């Protein structure tokens, strides 16, 4: 007897049942949140999904740690807040673009996909406690919307099973409770050193930046990353074909101008007109000589040489070969391997009043058990956007001992002045309350 080959509907139904089973089999909230934004991507083909619980982003597709200050996180939280204000957050629906305000529509165009589906998460009284923002380019069919609605019920049931949210009741005597509250208040007044964590990287100190000396295409790299170089070594070469042709043309033009000057100088003894044109031909010779010299200088710049001893600090040579670059574009850096500093990217929400000389402890990702001590030297007044899309202040710190290898990354712990433990624990909640209430 030949087994029947399952059709498309059977395969889709099997994948849907597997998603429900995986959700209910989750052992904790974090694994469930990860499954909710990632596992259904193969079935519905969405670009990204965001899980929001109580109005805050809890998980994102392909992201292990949600950055609360990221532009996309702010957009989905704003969009979910508008659906809640309109009384539509408890309904599974395709989100209409005109249902959001102008700012949210502009952010949608730049941060999310073309069509989005809002999948609410509701409790036993059908009150929403969260939802999923699921976005992709293709429209949502009625069959997909029905499957998503059923899947939302399974996700809600699995979430409530892991986090039922039962009220916590005090059952201790009042005197004991009062003693615990008094001890907690005294503990909150205990002075501790304020500190924050931030990503950091070991970078060269006082290195020589090697920039492109001309507009052109890089033909070859003669050094490798972290290779030791000496002063005068050739680092890279530009494609010199057009520059050589330009130099040859300038040389021939100079020869022609010199010949014309010489001929007119000989005729000047007998021809008054030739005598009057000698200055013109002499100026033309100087012009052609200047063009020839400039072409030779460009030809000499096609070979970039090291101006000091050190190591070549750059990421990859292959991404530069054959790529057109502009004058002044940074190519690499020549740095002394024993001279390095610590560059820290401090998030805006973690910014404290750090003084120059503040203590910094570095824990490298490659050696998290070893602590490197440094001291803060400079801090930027203006926040800039990092490669991850986060606004952060740049801080530079000097190592107290021999620095680690250039290029290593890790986590820096910055220590500030002493303050109450309550301020250390409640600094972020108080800042959020101040931004919300305005007091």
Automatic annotation (TrEMBL):
Subcellular location: Cell envelope
Cellular component terms per the entry's GO annotation: cell envelope
Highest taxon listed in the record's lineage: Bacteria
Keyword Coiled coil: yes
Main location: other
Keywords: Coiled coil
Coiled coil: 240-267
Alphabetized Gene3D superfamilies for the sequence: 2.40.30.170, 2.40.50.100, 3.30.450.40, Helix hairpin bin
PANTHER family associated with the record: BLL5650 PROTEIN, EFFLUX SYSTEM COMPONENT YKNX-RELATED
The protein's name: HlyD family efflux transporter periplasmic adaptor subunit
Organism annotation: Aquipseudomonas ullengensis
